[in-house]
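Researcher: Please predict.
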Amino acid sequence: MDSLGSWILALTATGLICGAVRALTPAGTVKKAVTAVCGFAMAAAMLSIAGDVDALGISRYAARYNEEARIYTDSALQGARAQTRFIIEERCEAYILDKAALLNVSLGGVEVTARWSDEGFWYPAAARLSGKRSPELSRILAAELGIPEEDQIWSESDET
């Protein structure tokens, strides 16, 4: 930050000096020469920051920034995956309870377990249902949600 402040100060001072010299120089070839010299002086002042730039420091900063960005991105992806899993499980549970009500099947509770597929998405893989097993509801869960009958755990207790 100090070198940036010094650079701005040098640039400003050079501009002021060049402006004053050009204002005091009479018109003609001398003014053209002074203008050219002032142009070179301003260019030198603008490029002087390049000598103060720490290329290794910038590289380290960029690498650290890249690593932090990767960590934040990974964390956000994990959070999004967890949230998506929760939503899938919750909606499947509500769907099963609605289907059970339509079929007059009494369920004390439902717990759906979602799994991550090789294709990169969550899918309902298993269900624990508390209540008397309903073959019709079991077939619907297999056909409409893709939960195989062998992964549907029915219990007549109120625990899921």
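Model: The CA atoms of residues 19 and 151 lie 84 Å apart.
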